[in-house]
Amino acid sequence: MSRAPPTLLIVEDDSDLRDALVEILTAEGFHAVATATGDEALTWLETHPPPALVILDMWTPRRDGWLLLDSLHLLPTLADMPVVVISAGEEKHPAIREVLQKPFDRDLLVACVRRFVHALH
């Protein structure tokens, strides 16, 4: 039997970018789940096994990326989960493994995801 594809959680408030990320990563063989806010992401994380990777836009409404990172970093079951941030800035936080600078291209995104997911699976 083949294993289920690794799950990626995308947190992005821009619906066009969110849909594009899901489409690209699904086409690459991942199971991509997307939320628009950090609050939605935390709700999803409370009811599902931890994803292989979180792709996080830092500036989402309500619970922004900073608050979500703080929440993840404090939960023992999620503290080691890799997080890749999408941002125009040079973001720093103990939970961030890499920052994808906006704008980024498809190949850079896929290479980044594969680097982290293949290290885990």
| CATH class category label | Alpha Beta
Largest sheet: 5 strands, parallel
* Quaternary: single chain
Question: According to CATH, what is the topology?
Answer: Rossmann fold
CA-based gyration radius: 13 Å
Query: In CATH terms, what is the architecture?
Result: 3-Layer(aba) Sandwich
Give the name of the CATH superfamily. Response regulator
**Given the structure, what is the number of helices?**
4
Helix/strand order, N-terminal first? EHEHEHEEH
Distance between the termini: 16 Å
- Stretches where pLDDT is under 50 for at least 5 consecutive residues are none
Strand content: 15-25%
Task: Write down the domain tally.
Answer: 1
Overall mean pLDDT stands at 88
Walkthrough of the structure:
The chain is an alpha/beta fold. It has one domain: Response regulator (Rossmann fold, 3-Layer(aba) Sandwich). It has 4 helices and 5 strands. The chain has helices at residues 15-27, 38-47, 65-74, 106-120, and strands at residues 7-11, 31-35, 53-57, 83-87, 96-101. The protein has a 5-stranded parallel β-sheet with strand order 2-1-3-4-5. Strand 1 (7-11), helix 1 and strand 2 form a beta-alpha-beta unit. Helix 2 (38-47) runs parallel beside helix 3.
